[in-house]
Structures are given as structure tokens and as C-alpha cells.
Amino acid sequence: MAMATSGAEHFSPFLWGWDCAAAPIFIDNHFLGAFNICRLTLSEGLQELLTLAVSCANAVGERIRIEMLQMTERTLIDLMALSLPLNTATGILAFDKEGRLTYKNRAAGDLLKYPHQEINLLGLNSMTRPLLSHLRQGKYGESAQLICDDTGKEFIVESKECRTEEEVTSTIVVIYPKEQPQSKFVSNVPSVILSKFPTKEDNLKNTLMKTVKIAKSDMSILIQGESGTGKDYMAHAIHLESARRNQPFVAINCAALPRDLIASELFGYGPGAFTGANRNGNPGKIEAANGGTLFLDEIGDMTLDLQAVLLRTLEEKQLTRIGSTTSVPVDVRFIAATHRNLQESVRKGAFREDLYYRLSIYTLHLPPLRERKMDFEHIIMEISEGICNRMGRSLFYLTPNAIKVLQNHRWKGNLRELRNMVERMACLHEGDTIDTYHLSEYIDLSTEDQEIHEKQLILSALEKTYGNRAETARALGISRASLYRKLNSYGIK
Predict the structure, then answer these.
(1) Which of 160, 128, 161 is nearest to 145 (CA)?
(2) How would residue 440 be classed by pLDDT, with cut points 50, 70 and 90?
(3) How far apart are CA 473 and CA 40, in angstroms?
């Protein structure tokens, strides 16, 4: 229960010159601590101090809750990426980076005969210490331990630390009988695609799982999506997921190069091919990507004559430099991307049908940001953390009301527009909290956004004044009549 004390209400005379307000911090109904604010005693405003303490406590609790959910989500993504047999007699435990148990299947509980709550207290992050206190421990190979229960039955325990370049993100523990000593870890490397594109959207999740399988092959992939949805980011993730990960990844934007240069950029040129050319000739992007992946961004803007030459390269796996008669064999995996509707371009004769089918053996559609409402909060927090760390400033927190307004924004520039907005916030915002009334400083809100923004302002003011309409109207700087009209318009009781 939140409370405020002032002057002589304090037990100690040393505090009689102070006003203090404190509020408990709860996470999912579990008490975590308290947030306390003190100031030199004033004649008024104690209620405002209490309101501030409650708001800060709620903000701290919400922030910690979000971070815990993000760690849980990342742990489950790592677990899925390892492709473990989740529905067999093999026991599986998954711990987040703080050592909290995120997943435990039935077999793990049966094998360990340990309640969920007690396992959660173990804080596993390494197999260099005993797994459980009631199990006898012994070494079994380099990456596993041999343990036995009270009956003498032996089990093998293996652990896998999943990590990014910066940190360990989770620890997965597998337990199985000694009679089955094969490793249960299908892959020592978590999926790059699933790690870089975490999602709660079922459709996108299914698409990404298929993409992980396709990425391991050499088939051509066409990525379609609006500008700013991360097509180039996905192409690089597919390359890192494939067996070509240690070979070159070469990207070229077909819309950014002049028509007379793109041919030489792609296919290269021979000695003396044109005035000013290198006397020894020059290899093109396709040759540079030999053995690896070539990413053709905005393939829909490529001219028809170049499309024909590219198709021949795809089919024959060799190319001829401009001004040369010698064919050069190439081994390249092609990934193309476009924001255009290529099927419509084919119908209009602007894109070759045979090339379209050659490039789109597998087509991946990346949804726009406005269709990823379930992922929005995680996306903006991840972008904010990266930008704030790069700028060397403290991480700022967006209130739930602010996030709700941004979720309903159209985001015509998608992730690119969102990143630009966050960079402005990180550079210009001096506080650690961004509420709805700050948003108009960093992004152009549509009429619909402004209505949501105004509604959230009214709700926030009502909360701070404990529903007092007169004080709410004064806080918003409008008349009571105007306030009642707005309450009726937004359906606020």
C-alpha cells in the first residue's frame, strides 16, 4: 500500500523537516521492493508526491516485467532453434540468462523427481558445478556429466549455452539415460534467422521456421515486402544460416545504379571493354560472390535486357564479362528482394516470367510493421537499447499509453521509420520516460493517432486526479463542458 508522511508524522525527529512518499513495486502480484521519494517539507503538494511515487513504482515494475518477458521469449526461441525432441522421454530444461527456469518438460520432472519451484532456484548457467544436490556427480566426456539417482540408475546430462556475439542468452540442459549416449543437440548453433527475427505472430513464426529449412539449401529465394521491412537484414541472416556462411555475401541495389553501369557491376568487364576501363579488366559482383551469396535488392527495377543475361547466368552457372568472349564458371546462391508486386509486373510485361519463376523457387513475404502489433513492444525496446548503448546514454522507457499510440501509427517507412524516430528520441529527450504527450515532438501523428493520443492524455489525467473531472479539466487546460464532450466522444465513463 502506498503512503506518504510529512513533518512530525515521522517516527524520528531527524526526519520532521522532510516529506516522504513510498509505493510498493509488484511484478505479477509478487512484491519486489519499494520506491521512495523524499523532499524538504512544503506546505502543500503531498498528494502530488504520493502520485509521483506510485507512478515511478509502476514504471519500474513494468520495466522489469518487460525485461523478464524478453529474456523468457529469447530463451524459448533458442530452445526452438536447437530442434530438440520436446515430446519424448528425454528431459529438457531451459534457463534464461539470469538462471530462471523458463521451460521444463514432463520427462525432466520425472527423471529428476524435483518440483518446478526448487529447480527454478538452482540458477544453472554452467555444467562445471553439481546439477542437483541429491545426485552423485561424475565426469562423462568433455561437455556432459554422468549422474545417478538414489536407485543407482545412471543418466547423462548435457548443457548448451546459447549466445549472441555479446552475451549468453540462455542455457539448455538435456537429460537422458546412459544407454542412449548420442547427443540430443541437433545443432550447436542456434538459428540466426530465429534469433534476429523474434516474433509472437503465428503466421510470421511459421514463415520463419520454413525459411530456416530453406536457408540450408542452395535454392534461390525472393523476399517481398514494403520498403523498410528488413529485406536486406533477412537476406544476410539467410546467408549466415546456410552452409555458405563463411563465404562472401555481396549485395547490390539494382535501383541505385544507372542503367549503363549495372551490367558492368554485375558481370564485370574485360580489358579495353570501354573508354576508361581498367586495362586488366574487372570482375563483377557475381564473380566476387563466387562460393557465397549474391543479394539483388530491388530486383523489380532491373531492365529487361539485363534480366535476360541474369537468367542465363542462373541457368548455366557461368557468365561472360562485358567485352570478353571467355566464360567464367560461378557458384553463387541468389537472393532477390523487391517492394514491387512482381506478378503484376510480369502481367504488364515489365518483368520476365521465366526469371520470376527462377528467382522465386521460395518466396518470403515480410509483413509491414503495422501488422506486427504483438511484436511491436519488443521491437522498439530492442532498437532503443541498441541505439542508446551506441550513443552512450541511459535507456529510456516508453509508457504503455505511448506504445499503444505508436502501435496504431501507420509506419509507412516501417522499421526504418521507427529507427529514425528512436534515434531522435535518444538524441533529444533528456528524461528516462516518454509518454504520449512527448510523441508529437519526434513523429508526425495522423488524425487517428492524434485522437488516440488525446484519449490517452485524458485517461492519464483522470488517473492522476483520481477521477476528479474538475481537476482533470484544469490539468488539461480545457473547460469542464469540453471535457464532458470528449469523454462522451471517446466512450470514457
Answers:
(1) 128
(2) confident
(3) 29
